[in-house]
Write a structure and sequence with these properties.
This protein is of the alpha/beta class. It has two domains: about 200 residues, Flavin prenyltransferase-like (Rossmann fold, 3-Layer(aba) Sandwich), CATH 3.40.50.1950; about 210 residues, Rossmann fold (3-Layer(aba) Sandwich), CATH 3.40.50.10300. The strands form six sheets. Strands 12-11-8-13-16-17-19-20 form an eight-stranded mixed beta sheet, sandwiched between helices. Helix 4 packs across helix 6 and helix 11 crosses helix 15. The protein is globular. The two termini are about 45 Å apart. Bound molecules: cytidine-5'-triphosphate (CTP). Cytidine-5'-triphosphate binds next to helix 13 and strand 16.
Length: about 425
């Protein structure tokens, strides 16, 4: 990881971050996060539960945060009555790192019985939690329901990683690394209104997709020939970005996996950058199990080079031909993985639009496909407008006229919402 916290000094200096630590083995990593935030200039206050201090120490937390540790509801000092209010009004962001199944359940039920939960209850800014627990606990339907409740009111959940757990089993539930949490802190503080824990924000997040995770892919892929050259396509990423923004507006938690584009990262959307089709495949597979909806608007490369030259190939020694091999079909790979997401694909066709799209819908085992024409003016990958036919798994077809990609994104999501049984209209 090449994160240099000092690169973010200008943005983070003077930002107030409250960190709650709860009792999980991953609490040993929280001091590393505190260190990153302090090195980036943020002010940090730490509130620990009693069991958190079985996994890390007061001394470590106070030394790294350069602030007294808060642990008690009723400390024996003069500010006792207002301590939780003081930190709640001081913080620009409230993190819970790690968040155990227990704290997630307590917060989701509105319990305030210690310094951490009381302070959080009195706090109205953005909140992010980094769950860490054994895979069975993480996949327990009650934990899932509680996380859904927190998402619905605007809390950001920093998804755990998969890998070897402290109990020597393998699975999902390992806390995100401090560097990833740091990156998410930057994202949240850039668009804090998206993750607020107050009633105004909760209202904006209560849409038909509230509590749902939408994974969108966008843009082209690049397949490298040498250190400076690549094969790519004309995709601008506009369709995928419009879908990500609309899904967010409908209340979803959105992850956008984007190839190289000239577009700005949408505020409030977790954006993962990739270049090659193989990287796109890996990120989609990594995220699919936790997604409710996948919309595959990216334009992967269908071929990649057989050889790659580390050195720039000189003009004089230019190859007469490029040897290519097919890339994996990402949607087909998704269909082999255990997931329950509703999957929407696109079909770009220069002839037999509906017939070819129907075949792709079947072959790639999709729930819906958006067929659009290639080579038609006002439609296709690099145009701001598009013309599309929506084809459902049932065979139902909706023909749409040419329109802005933002409007088309709304219609695709309305149809998806209806087909998922979430039953709401946006317009
Ligand atoms: N797609 C994919 N993996 C690939 C290529 C495409 O998952 N390697 C996805 C696209 O994101 C899109 C759908 O498959 O959602 C159809 O893409 P399209 O380019 O229309 O079709 P291809 O499968 O590439 O087939 P062809 O080029 O022969 O039309």
């Amino acid at each position: 990881m090449t994160l240099n916290p000092e690169d973010h000094k200008e943005f983070l200096t003077g930002k107030h971050i409250a960190i709650g630590i709860t009792g999980g083995i991953a609490a040993y990593k929280t001091p590393l996060l505190i260190r990153l935030l302090r090195r980036a200039g943020a002010d940090v206050r730490v509130i620990a539960t009693e069991s958190a201090l079985k996994f890390t120490t007061r001394w470590t937390l106070e030394t790294l945060s350069e602030n007294p540790l808060e642990t008690e509801m009723f400390p024996e000092d003069s500010q006792a009555e207002t301590r939780h209010i003081s930190t709640a009004t001081w913080a620009d962001l409230f993190l819970i790192v790690p968040a155990t199944a227990n704290i997630i359940g307590k917060i989701a039920s509105g319990i305030s019985d210690d310094a951490l939960t009381t302070t959080l209850c009195a706090y109205t800014g953005p909140v992010a939690l980094a769950p860490a627990m054994n895979t069975n606990m993480y996949e327990n339907p009650i934990t899932k329901k509680n996380l859904g409740t927190l998402r619905e009111v605007g809390y950001r959940i920093i998804d755990p990683d998969s890998g070897e757990m402290a109990c020597h089993t393998f699975g999902v539930g390992r806390m995100a690394e401090p560097e990833r949490i740091f990156e998410e802190v930057l994202e949240i503080l850039r668009a804090p209104e998206t993750h607020r824990n107050d009633s105004a924000a909760a209202t904006t997040l209560v849409g038909p997709l509230a509590g749902k995770k939408v994974l969108v892919t966008a843009g082209p892929c690049r397949e490298p020939i040498d250190s400076v050259r690549f094969i790519s396509n004309r995709s601008s990423g506009k369709m995928g970005y419009a879908l990500a923004e609309q899904a967010l507006a409908l209340g979803a938690e959105v992850t956008l996996i984007s190839g190289p584009t000239a577009l700005e990262k949408p505020a409030g959307v977790k954006t993962i950058r990739i270049e090659t089709t193989q990287e796109l495949l890996e990120k989609v597979i990594e995220n699919i199990a936790t997604s409710n909806i996948l919309i595959m608007a990216a334009a992967p490369a269908d071929f990649t080079t057989l050889e790659y030259s580390e050195q720039k190939i000189k003009k004089g020694s230019s190859p007469k031909s490029l040897n290519l091999k097919p890339t994996p079909d990402i949607l087909k790979e998704v269909s082999k993985v255990d997931h329950s997401a509703f999957v929407v694909g696109f079909a770009l066709e220069s002839e037999n639009l509906v017939e070819n799209a129907r075949r792709k819908l079947r072959d790639k085992k999709l729930d819906m496909i958006v067929a659009n024409p290639a080579g038609e003016s006002g439609a296709g990958p690099d145009s701001p407008t598009n013309r599309a036919v929506l084809i459902e798994k049932s065979g139902e077809t909706t023909e749409l006229s040419r329109m802005e990609k933002t409007r088309l994104a709304q219609i695709i999501l309305e149809k998806t919402i209806a087909l998922c049984g979430l039953g709401a209209q946006t317009t």
